[in-house]
Amino acid sequence: MRLILWLMPSAVSAFAYAPNFITKIIQEDTQLDPFSETIIESSKIKTRFPPEPNGYLHLGHAKAVSFNFAVARMFGGACHMRLDDTNPSKEDREYVESILEDVKWIQGGLYDGDAPWDGKVRKTSDYFDLIYDCAIFLIQNGHAYVDSLSADEMREYRGTLTEPGKDSPFRSRSVEENLQLFQEMKAGKCAEGEHVLRAKIDMASPNINMRDPTLYRIKHESHQETGDKWCIYPMYDFSHPISDAVEEITHSLCTLEFEDHRPFYDWTIEKLLPSGLISATPRQIEFSRLNIKSTVLSKRKLIQLVEENHVNGWDDPRLPTLSGLRRRGVPPSALRLFCERVGISKADSNIDYSVLEDCAREVMDEACSRAFCVLHPLKVTITNWEGGLEEFTVDKHPKLAEMGTRVIPFGKSLFIERSDFFDLEGPEGKLSGGIPPKGFKRLLPNEMVRLRYAYVIQCNEIIRDAESQEPIELKCTYLPDTRAGNTPEGMSRVQGIIHWVEESTGVKCQINQYDRLFKVEEPGKDSGDFLKDINPDSLEILPGAIVEPSVLTDVVDILKKIDENKEIYHSTLAYQFERSGYFALDTSSTGPESLVLNRVATLRDTWGVKKDEPERNRGNTRNEKDATPVEDIRRVAFRAATIVSADPHPEAENLLVCKVNCGDPEPRTVVAALAGQVELTDLVGSKVVVVANLKPAKMRGIESEAMLLAASDSDSGKVELLQVPASVPDGELLSFEGKEPSLPDDMLKSKGAIKAWERAKAGLRSTSEREVAFFDGSKVYRMMSSAGSVSTASLAESVIQ
């Protein structure tokens, strides 16, 4: 096994490339610098991932897997895969197989060969004979003894965090007696709980883990690897450093709960080095564990969820298990990106689940083919359509021509989303007083809408259910001259665009829409029982969805590949269903007779948005069903605002601290690099343009909650804030002439969203007439307010930033 690429540090996709305290320690230990241009061909660095095979791996393990393998890659070393199988009562072959599969999956694409780890899969049970010899050596040298206290008595003798422990009455047994008793324990002559082997260290130690910790206990159970050979088994804290030393692990990287165990780790290595049984001196280093909001990572709780049927097995897509995330369709590269963003430190953190979903969106947006899927179908009949089917050939991905094209059939009968038609004359119209929702630009009775890639249609008649009066079919006409986005001369441009699927070629499928498994961030914290906090709406099944035929073609192809290669996963086939979200093929899919897809993530984060609370006017929270893919410039919230105060920054001569009324309940603080370039007295009262949905950022200790836009001339160095007509209300969302109204993100915080802002910003300039505009190739779109265009005072053909 070797890396696929080792050209230079940037060739490795791993978050360990962000320098952290552990990589710095290893740099000091090795004098190797993976951040330089020097190629590290190979080194003696060895890490390991040693899970217990008593459960399925979850998100917390993802961080440990990623970091241990990444460090080995960074330093040209190797990472071992070891199963810590020291507790036969809780271990199972099912867990072993799932762990190995998960590690292969999350590291997929980074290595050649069958597995990412170096050499064979190692097990602690491989070293049982050696660990036993180590215990004998400690007894012989007076560093271990057989204790016959009961479990309750041992707890009593151990002391507390504030009171020292006291010596066991059996601590003074002779070496000969200890050897004899330990050999009797091994021979099966003692009952469980009758004796244990303990290290002889210090019962008064302030570290309770050093108060004569247990090394071996009796368990009359068969082991999945060694059978009935052993009836005594080493404790993890004892077997762990020995296994590391035998494998010549250089850096034993683990989570912070083992920090207090490190003194015993080092003690074990120190006492055993003279034995000759081990020769290496691994170094244990701890980092913070991963905590995720709105889920649980406790093995006990996960087992309870599975065994009590609160979920549908270990691979339920709502679980944080790696098998569940894989079935849901989260790409392994998205999990690695998530670990990268979480980072490595010693500080505890509680990460919002939306961070993982943002990573999934970012990876899938770049990698997934687009397709149409109607989740809640409403039939549309084109009454003036004549003939058979017409085909539209469109790109599978709007930015990746190399992905090829797909064919979308069009004909007389179609399906559209029920939510894309607002029935002014039906039940929903009566509730709204016959007024469509604010900003609704889709289909209305007697109005028009454009079918994406196809034609404009007009609704002429509504067929209703006799009892509910709900629409069950729309009779529409199409405008032949509007094919493929064309707007005939003299016709007003139709604003709304919706997706659709042709009836005769559409494929029925089941959509599983997954959401948070728990309705609170910390399950059980307030209720006292985490099961009471399960989200009853965590799964919505849509059995009657209709997907375009190209998806079925892809499904048949991948199912054939899966039959030939069992290591290909169903969820490898994933899509962005336009205006709906990201979806992946479920393992239960068998073909056209049973086609099931799982929602991986919505197009935008919609969890926990409270509609009844006043929100800052950053962007525009859109219903996910309305979430048509939006071009970059329309994702940015350009808003009119008034500067109400401006003062010098207390710590930076080039910065000003302004209070700006952006239409929110309270003015925002905006820090701008305008000192010395504009007069303070000229700023107050100015009607300006702000970018209102950027992520707040601290500038020399003061958080800036928006950005002021200004024009600048590189030759003269002159800077001017953009000017908005004085009559425009604060908070008004500005638009661009010739483009559809802006639909800004709530906040431009993901890497993809920030890139969208940067691309949008690159096209902003002032025209020769001093009007602010967005330049897109040869096309120019003026920035407009309700009272006219936005302009500069004097700077023409200048950069806007």
TrEMBL record:
It comes from the Eukaryota. It holds the Pfam family tRNA-synt_1c_C2. GO terms for molecular function: ATP binding; glutamine-tRNA ligase activity; tRNA binding. One of its GO terms (cellular component) is cytosol. PROSITE patterns: AA_TRNA_LIGASE_I, TRBD. It is an enzyme of class 6 (ligase). Residues 1-16 form the signal peptide. InterPro entries: aa-tRNA-synth_I_CS, Gln-tRNA-synth, Gln/Glu-tRNA_Ligase, Glu/Gln-tRNA-synth, Glu/Gln-tRNA-synth_Ib_cat-dom, Glu/Gln-tRNA-synth_Ib_codon-bd, Glu_tRNA_lig_a-bdl, NA-bd_OB-fold. GO terms for biological process: glutaminyl-tRNA aminoacylation. Keywords: Aminoacyl-tRNA synthetase, ATP-binding, Ligase, Nucleotide-binding, Protein biosynthesis, RNA-binding, Signal, tRNA-binding. It catalyses: tRNA(Gln) + L-glutamine + ATP = L-glutaminyl-tRNA(Gln) + AMP + diphosphate. Residues 632-735 form the TRNA-binding domain. Its EC number is 6.1.1.18. Belongs to the class-I aminoacyl-tRNA synthetase family. This is glutamine--tRNA ligase.
